[in-house]
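Researcher: Quick test of sequence recovery. Tokens follow.
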């Protein structure tokens, strides 16, 4: 099992802020690509991943969306049909369905609540989880030790929140996937691939 925390300081925190032009909707397009690269395989949805979307954009930050799609059962009853073409509509619906004071499970395996990036990361660290921050200056992913059930933190086009990360400093290991600056979604694809390889070789 692997988890990703995607932090976006611009992604909108209300459904009506997602307009037809996704790039102009707080760069929600990046979050959508992140969902696709976390879960979509050729003709399959991953069941070994969870994605946390931490949105800090207008109008009512923060929002924490947690996604661990249910893939078993009847569509429309036990699970939703998640396709590359409807990720935007699913995120929009989740934002509309936020309920104050609750972690609301809007669809099976899709939750929304009011929780900030730092609080979420601290909660997971307190549970004893192994946290890695995706950072070009970190240790090479090919050689770094990755412990079981890892959590990887990554940022949007503006990167990770420096101030919050400083407060988390002792709780994570910085990891680099290579010498260039990649899209958030490309970063996830590379991490997923590295973890798949380690699992197949019995190294994780
Ligand atoms: C498009 S990049 C962000 C670029 C932003 N200007 C910055 O300086 O962070 C999106 C995210 O992908 C991850 N990322 C990109 N390239 C990486 C690399 N070579 N190693 C590790 N993580 C990387 C980082 O978490 C980054 O926040």
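Model:
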């Amino acid at each position: 099992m692997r988890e990703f925390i995607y932090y976006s300081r611009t992604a909108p925190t209300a459904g009506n802020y997602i307009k037809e032009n996704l790039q102009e909707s707080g760069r929600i397009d990046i979050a959508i690509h992140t969902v696709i690269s976390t879960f979509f395989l050729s003709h399959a949805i991953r069941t070994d991943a969870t994605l946390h979307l931490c949105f800090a954009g207008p109008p009512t930050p923060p929002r924490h969306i947690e996604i661990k799609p249910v893939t078993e059962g009847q569509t429309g009853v036990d699970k939703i049909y998640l396709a590359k073409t409807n990720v935007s509509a699913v995120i929009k619906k989740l934002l509309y369905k936020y309920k104050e004071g609750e972690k609301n499970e809007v669809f099976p395996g899709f939750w929304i609540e009011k929780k900030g990036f730092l609080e979420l990361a601290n909660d997971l660290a307190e549970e004893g989880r192994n946290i890695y921050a995706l950072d070009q200056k970190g240790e090479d992913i090919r050689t770094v030790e990755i412990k079981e059930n890892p959590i990887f933190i990554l940022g949007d086009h503006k990167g990770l929140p420096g101030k919050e990360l400083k407060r988390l400093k002792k709780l994570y290991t910085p990891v680099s996937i290579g010498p260039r600056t990649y899209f958030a979604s490309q970063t996830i694809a590379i991490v997923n691939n590295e973890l798949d390889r380690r699992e197949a070789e019995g190294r994780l």
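The chain has five helices and ten strands.
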